[in-house]
Request: fold
Amino acid sequence: MRVDVLTLFPEIFSGYLGQSLLKKAIDLGRVDVQLHNLRDWAQGRHQQVDDRPYGGGPGMVMMVGPVVEAVEAVQARDPTPAHVVLLTPQGRRLDQQVVEQLSARPRLLLLCGRYEGFDQRVIDILQPDEISIGDFVLNGGEVAAMVLIDAVIRLVPGVLGHADSAVDDSFSSGNRLLECAQYTRPREYRGLKIPDILVSGDHGAIARWRAAQSYARTRQRRSDLLDNNQGHTHDQQVD
Ligand code: JQB
Reply:
């Protein structure tokens, strides 16, 4: 998978991209992340990419020209057309189902804004897939783009150590339960012992115990996950 990232702050990504799992995927040629500075498409002496909002109001807005021209230029750098994603609080919510869909794309182009967001004509022209990572406000799209890359990359075949880890994950399409408690050595710490069942050697009993734990935890902490509507409210008559 190729991922192009357009941002005013490419350096934000460098520490993250050097990290082990991603570095391994990049070294193996499974993932190719290319960073591009939107400033390179700015016009004029001041290299301006933002301007004051028409109609007044606080803050600045990302200009349509530099952003659209940057996306078009980066698209043209590879013959495979990229699925264009714009990170924005106005987007559809990122969840594991969306992550799975994105991971099937051969190429993504992630557009990261700053300030108060983009001129609406960026969206009208590019018609990007607008995605939000959650109902809170960030200072820009970069951290959201790293969250998206992190979640998508671990589903790319050959990136995870164990092929079934991703299938097993909480929220994967085959699983909508939280993971159960897990333990490693030592068997006792400050008087806290691990559950005896885990050292019983009875793999069937262990699997049943874990499934029951997962279900109980999900019911206690996230009963919304047990609803069959998967978070989407069905229209209903309310009179
Ligand atoms: C500017 C962003 C997010 C990108 C995601 C998420 O968009 C704004 N609107 C009003 C005030 C401030 C901003 C800041 N801002 C570009 C930009 C926020 C993404 C963002 C996001 N994806 N929260 N915030 N879940």
Observations:
- The radius of gyration is 22 Å.
- Residues 87-89, 113-117, 132-134, 136-141, 144 surround JQB (CB under 6 Å).
- Residues 2-153 form a domain with the Alpha/beta knot fold (CATH 3.40.1280.10).
- The first helix runs from residue 14 to 17.
